[in-house]
Known about the structure:
This protein is α/β, with parallel strands linked by helices. The protein has one domain: Rossmann fold. The chain has seven helices and eight strands, in the order E-H-E-H-E-H-E-H-E-E-H-E-H-E-H. The protein has a six-stranded parallel beta sheet with strand order 2-1-3-4-7-8, sandwiched between helices. It has a two-stranded antiparallel ribbon with strand order 5-6. Helix 3 (72-84) links the parallel strand 3 and strand 4.
Amino acid sequence: MLAPVLIYIHGFHSSPLSLKVQQMQQYVAQQRPDIIFECPQMPCLPLQAWALIESIVARYPGHKLGFIGSSLGGYLATKANAEFGANAVLINPAVRPYELLVDYLGENTHPYTEQVYTLTIEHMADLKSLDVDPVEHPERLWLLTQMGDEILDYQQAVHKHQLSKTTIEQGGDHSFIGFDRYLGPVLRFLDL
């Protein structure tokens, strides 16, 4: 029996050191040490990020996969759900990041890695090419969103994922306050 693989895709300008990643990684280590936990530092450029996800999946042929994606990671996890047919949990996911990230066109410095990189309008087109619309496997997605998200309009995600399991909480913020309440239910939904 091959070990199940949980792939956590963090958000734009985030890292594997984010609180949600750390909470999930510790939970898996304590409660489900049979699960292989993968959370790489995601590249800043969209096609590089997607290529990294594909390369991780390619390392585990025949393994059962599950995805968690936060913010931009939720957008990419929706693509992973479509490509690989795996269950995915989306935490305050970006729905149209190619509209949001135009504010970052030009030179940027990643706040965690200090990598200097340049975002171009072509990268926005690359991001749009990764969009899944309509959602292909809504029954395999669980949307976790908080109405107090100060960065993304939670209603976009609710509309896009209206056929999926959905949890909408009052208040909160973009980081999804209290994610640790969902660690067990998330793993059960991912069916790993």
